[in-house]
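Write out the 3D structure for:
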Amino acid sequence: MNRIGSLDWQRGLLAFSIMAYHLTGWELRQLDASSLLGRLGIYGVSMFFVLSGLSIALVYNRYIQGLKSSLKFLVRRVFRIWPLLWLAIAFATGSAMLAGRPPYWWSILVNLTTAFGFVDPAAYMNVGAWSIGNEMVYYALTPLIILAYNRRRVAGNFVTLAATFVGAWFSSEVLTPDRLNTLVFGGFAFVALAIAVVGVAGVLAFSVSGRTREFGIRLAVGSQPRHLVRGVIAEGAAMAGIGIAAGAIGGFALARLAAGYFQDLKMPGPTPVIGSAMVLLAAAVIASMLPATRAARVDVMQALRSD
């Protein structure tokens, strides 16, 4: 990956104009957007993003070819930002606590993960960090757009237009407090459920692969395939049941502990708890289907010959 010197020089000059605008506004006098430095600052921010996007697209066009290279790109870009940002957040949090205005835990979380760019662009804690939120959204979309363009130009145009429309809809319709909370916590719940499903399926698949000989012997002595299927699914359900019980106990304990610090915290009723447990249990059973089917299809002779 070779840098493009001319674009880097232009980005540097634009960054200098932005810095001059902010430094003058902070140290000397508040500048109007219509002033010379104000216009340079606005132009600098806009063109900095445009040139940065162009530079990244040209540099990484041949590098991003699949999931592995996309993840490497994301990790590299994210960890160029997070360490220094975490220090700034720690300083801002400490200053606010010393002033008797501790920030809300949700604000700290979305800033540490830079998720505010996706869910609440106005929730940044440090001055000027709004641009980091925009940057993270761009980094998340870049691999998808580049992969689409590398496959076919029409596909890239479609992804770009789709991202534009989603961004317009998100900014105009979704970013209200009630919808935002529903969207964010629903997204976290979906990710947690996906991790649980993948975890159960992975553990059972590993267990089934290590018990091939056992399943072969059981089939040879007359056990029916459906019995093996039931056994594997029962293992998955038991695994999920233990996890649900442990999570419920831990969640209840943490909620009681948090209630001492947050007066408005309310415990959920039995309906959402039971409903969540049933969803997790059903997801675990579904995740067990593939390993269970694999166990039922074990070839008896091959299993008996295996070590």
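The two ends are 48 Å apart (CA to CA).
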